[in-house]
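Per-record layout

source: Fulvivirga sedimenti
name: DUF3667 domain-containing protein
length: 261
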Amino acid sequence: MHNCINCGKPHEYEYCPWCTQKKVVGRLSFRVFFDDLQDKLIGFDFKFSRTFLDLFYRPATVAKSYIAGNRVRYVGPVGYYFVMLTILVLLITIMDVDMIGYTRNETSFFQQSGLTPEQIEQQESMQGWIYSNFKFASFFFFPFFLFATALLFRKSKFNLLETSVLVLYSLAHSQVFNYFSITIFKFTGISFSGIVTGISMLYTAFFAMDFYRHNKRIHAFIKGLLIYPLGLLFLMIFLLVVLFILVLIFPERMRNFLILT
């Protein structure tokens, strides 16, 4: 009988049945460091590749597996979210992508709506800032997309925290389309950012259709298409409320700010 060096419980197995700590541990050596690093890298590599591939064709399986308590088969939604956004930030930084130029075609319709060149430039600058600070912006957008999803599928059996698993996975995996679009823009100058937004909306709708099986598939798909625009609507309402409060608290400063903009 052996007492586990981690949890202290007695057992007679090679690995502790309570915490999986190995029974016999030799003195610390470079081989121990190497084996530990290898196990972690290989383990993460398998989990990440499995998560990445399965999110393309059976995303609900990934999300529901995590909700059911399986923490071994797939990378969790928060970890996957961080990894995919980090890759995007690194891609933008390493290739030194002009994000204002990349998002310019998304604001092309403003040129036909009577806005002044200064207002169009402000719109482009804002979208460029969003892409350049994508980690911050994504965390800012997340609660509004979550609220939109919860509202659209309010009759589902999933609570708000479980719904956040779908939202995190779908937001994170949609960045794959940005990887290709940004790379193409860097080398050709052709931006597909507007198309990427549309594809991301379709992917979110497909995810929702696969996730909410209690709905008719076509109904779930249509509701999924509404997640993105409804989330943006909630964001705009929130910003207007904040602006209104700031005007009440700091009337002079906000008046000067609005005049300048």
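summary: The longest helix spans residues 217-249. Strands lie at 2-3, 10-11.
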